[in-house]
């Protein structure tokens, strides 16, 4: 996951006589799809083998040739694949082509396998329906809902293992969205890094929401590889501080950047997953604009207290409990004492 949009993330494995012959994951355009990579690795051992794929093999000529052709030519005897591709250009055509070629197509899977396959492409499926990315809001707070002390100290509320999980989440997304307040106060790099501090995976698209164009030329994120999309208000005359920075002048709503326009812009780029890592102002604005699809909250077993200690969301908030943002399909994970709560926003269809 991450870095392959507008393609869906797909994994494939070729197995023969109980042994793995080849493995593949989809590459960014114009690279190869997962199935041809696994088949090429397996070579002649693909003949009579079983191919496992997390998603229905694609069956049309696009940037890459049809995977169904490669599977048939390799002599695969059986395909095990739980999910039909929601792309209307595929939508069962891959399975039908392989069946017509005499390949045994098995769709059955365990509930857990199906869940994992669906999670892989949830952003892709969401983008197909809405033309927007799946927007995830990442929060971290103490047990009493504080993100800093009354003096502003915030590093670190959560533990090292939780912070490592955040880097994994970054690795799997296509864009990270933050606000200029966070850039100025925390000086983040907004990269996905391993425990040694080395970058992992693809360079992320970093999106800075900055109504008045205050992004400093010496911001640490500008020293990292990967594009920075600088969103400034209409009429703001901003110049890119480096060649990696692109500028978009967005319309304003109530004197602030129109966040609907930001999400639509990311969707127009074919991005499937976006994660918000921002201060209370921007995080609250995304919630109030009803643009959040998924929430991941890290809760540390600490109580900070104090009227002046800030919480994770600002703004007017819900006027009544019935209007509060409600999550469904919840999961809870204990991470060295911290608790990660993840869920999807219940929305009225």
**Which range best describes the helical content: under 10%, 10-25%, 25-40%, 40-55%, 55-70% or over 70%?**
10-25%
User: What sort of overall outline do the alpha carbons produce when their principal axes are compared?
Assistant: globular
Tell how many strands the DSSP assignment holds. 16
Main β-sheet, spatial strand arrangement = 10-9-8-7-13-6-14-16-15
Low-confidence segments, given as residue ranges, are: none
Query: How much is the average pLDDT?
Result: 93
Termini separation: 28 Å
Total number of helices: 9
Percent in strands: 15-25%
Give an overview in words.
- The protein has 349 residues and is an alpha/beta fold.
- It has 9 helices and 16 strands.
- The strands form 3 sheets. Strands 10-9-8-7-13-6-14-16-15 form a 9-stranded mixed beta sheet, with helices on both faces.
- The longest helix has 12 residues, at 160-171.
- The chain is globular and about 70 Å long.
Q: How are the SSEs placed, and which strands pair?
A:
Layout: E1 11-16, E2 19-25, H1 34-42, E3 50-53, H2 67-74, E4 78-80, H3 93-100, E5 104-106, H4 111-120, H5 122-130, E6 134-142, H6 160-171, E7 175-179, H7 180-186, E8 205-209, E9 228-233, E10 245-250, E11 252-253, E12 256-257, H8 259-268, E13 273-276, H9 280-288, E14 294-300, E15 327-335, E16 338-345
Parallel strand pairs: 3-4, 4-5, 6-13, 6-14, 7-8, 7-13, 8-9, 9-10
Antiparallel strand pairs: 1-2, 1-3, 11-12, 14-16, 15-16
């Amino acid at each position: 996951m991450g870095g392959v949009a507008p393609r869906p993330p797909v994994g494939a494995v070729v197995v023969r006589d109980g042994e793995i012959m080849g493995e593949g994951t989809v590459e960014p355009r114009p690279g190869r799809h997962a199935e041809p990579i696994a088949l090429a690795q397996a070579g002649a051992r693909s003949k009579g083998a079983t191919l496992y794929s997390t998603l229905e093999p694609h069956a049309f000529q696009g940037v890459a040739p049809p995977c169904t052709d490669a599977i048939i030519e390799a002599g695969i005897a059986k395909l095990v694949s739980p999910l039909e591709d929601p792309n209307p250009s595929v939508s069962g055509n891959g399975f039908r082509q392989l069946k017509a070629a005499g390949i045994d197509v098995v769709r059955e899977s365990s509930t857990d396998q199906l869940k994992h396959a669906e999670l892989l492409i949830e952003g892709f499926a969401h983008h197909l329906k809405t033309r927007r990315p799946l927007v995830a809001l990442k929060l971290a707070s103490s047990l009493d809902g504080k993100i800093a002390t009354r003096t502003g100290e915030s590093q670190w509320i959560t533990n090292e293992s939780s912070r490592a999980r955040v880097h994994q989440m970054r690795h799997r997304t296509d864009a990270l969205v933050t606000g200029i307040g966070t850039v100025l106060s925390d000086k983040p790099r907004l990269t996905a890094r391993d425990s040694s501090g080395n970058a992992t995976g693809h360079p992320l698209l970093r999106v800075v929401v900055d109504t008045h164009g205050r992004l400093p030329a010496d911001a640490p994120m500008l020293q990292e590889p990967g594009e920075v999309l600088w969103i400034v208000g209409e009429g703001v005359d901003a110049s890119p501080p480096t060649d990696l920075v692109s500028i978009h002048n967005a319309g304003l709503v109530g004197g602030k950047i129109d966040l609907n326009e930001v999400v639509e812009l990311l969707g127009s780029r074919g991005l499937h997953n976006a994660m918000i890592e921002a201060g209370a102002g921007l995080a609250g604005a995304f919630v109030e604009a009803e643009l959040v699809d998924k929430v991941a909250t890290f809760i540390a077993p600490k109580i900070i207290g104090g009227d002046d200690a800030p919480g994770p969301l600002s703004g007017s908030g819900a006027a009544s409990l019935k209007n509060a943002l409600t999550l469904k399909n919840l999961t809870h994970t204990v991470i060295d004492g911290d608790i990660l709560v993840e869920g999807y926003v219940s929305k009225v269809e």
